[in-house]
Amino acid sequence: MDLNATGEPVMTHEDPQVRVGVHIEKGTCVLSRGGTDFVAHHASVEFAAPEQQPWTAQEVVFSAQGPDGKPVGLKVDLLNDACDGPREGVPDAIWKVVALAATSAGDVGIRYTPPA
Question: Facing residues of 63 across strands?
Fold first, then answer.
């Protein structure tokens, strides 16, 4: 690898945000908008802990394919307009994707062991 790096990177905890990506088995999550179905194959869930509050899911962005086979991105806001709780009407399948992302990230207490 032709790259050098120095420093001691620091993450601030004032308003931390973490994006967690999960691959979705094709055909297991179908999103519908305006009568058109989109087959999701990846989701990127954004979690945040503003002002040292508990982690919460803010949004999920799906990578999907439309019926024409072209790729599309679909964004779902998970917080209500006041940003103090979950948005009503979010389908259960989307919350399941959020739960998968949280689980795969160690409930956003991301646990990682660097290579030796």
Answer: 42, 73
Q: What is the pTM of this model?
A: 0.77
Half-sphere exposure of 43 (CA within 13 A, CB side): 31
The two most distant CA atoms of the chain are separated, in Å, by: 52
Phi and psi, residue 12, nearest 5°: -80, 145
Residues whose CB is less than 8 angstroms from the CB of residue 79 and which lie 6 or more positions away in sequence, other chains included: 56, 58, 59, 85, 86, 87
Query: What digits encode the pLDDT tens for the residues 90-105?
Result: 999 999 998 888 887 6
For the purposes of burial, counting CB atoms within 10 Å of the CB of 58, is it exposed (0-12), middle (13-18) or buried (19 or more)?
middle
